[in-house]
Amino acid sequence: MDAQAVQRQINETVRIANMLDSRLSEMQRSISENQKAIAEKQEARIEKVMSDGYKFKKRGNEEQHKHNVKVLSKIQEANESIKEQKIEEAQLKIAEGVEIIKHRQKLIRLADSSEAGWRAVDEYVKNPIASDSEDEKKISKAQTRAERKVKEAKAKKRRDL
Predict the structure, then answer these.
(1) Secondary element (H or E) of residue 154
(2) Residues 32-55, buried b or exposed e (16+ Cβ, 10 A)?
(3) C-alpha count within 13 angstroms, C-beta hemisphere, residue 105
(4) List of residues 6+ apart from 81 with CB closer than 8 A
(5) Tens digit of each residue's pLDDT (9 = 90 or more) over 46-74
(6) Which end of the chain offers a freer environment for a tag, N or C, measured as fewer CB atoms within 10 Å?
(7) Domain limits, the chain
């Protein structure tokens, strides 16, 4: 074997070793990123479970907390997608978060505009089968049921006095 053949063999071996090193480093980085993402997801789940165990004194605070946890979860998922350069997935998670907020805002407006307040919202949410085209009817019926319950509760209080 002449010197040039030996040099070519050495160069080829070095090239293969560099390629293997590069792939190994890339694989280690990928594993590390995946482990970090899994750890963050587990941390979020643990935080959610721990906060679910908390006993709120007021139902409104509990409902707001649940809403905030849902939105926070979507934001965290979007953030992870961005880190992984999954832009379309991140956009989807952000859109889901926006929809959750829009729905909550709608419930707040319904509670504020109804004499029955959050009871109207409870009645509205109990029957989520109606489509958007029937939404106004659904809201109206929910308000009527809630207002009837408020009147019944007031009448019962008066009878009990």
Answers:
(1) helix 135-160
(2) eeeeeeeeeeeebeeeeeeeeeee
(3) 7
(4) 87, 89, 90, 93
(5) 666 666 677 778 777 788 888 888 888 88
(6) C
(7) 1-54, 114-161
Distance CA 123, CA 102 (A): 19
Segments in 53-134 forming alpha helices (H)? 59-83, 87-113, 118-126
pTM: 0.54
User: In one letter, which amino acid is 131?
Assistant: S
Rama region for 56: left / alpha / beta (φ>0; ψ in -120 to 50; rest): beta
For the chain, the farthest-separated pair of C-alpha atoms sits apart, in whole angstroms, at 112
Contact status, residue 73 vs residue 100, Cβ threshold 8 Å: no
CB atoms within 10 A of CB 10: 10
| Whole-number Å distance between alpha carbons of 24 and 98 | 40
Which position has the token pair 């990123």? 33
CA angle 6, 11, 13 (to 5 degrees): 95
Query: Tens digit of pLDDT for each residue in 99-143?
Result: 999 998 988 888 888 888 888 888 788 766 555 667 777 777 888
Instruction: Count CB-CB contacts under 10 A for residue 77.
Output: 19
Which tokens sit at 55? 């006993």
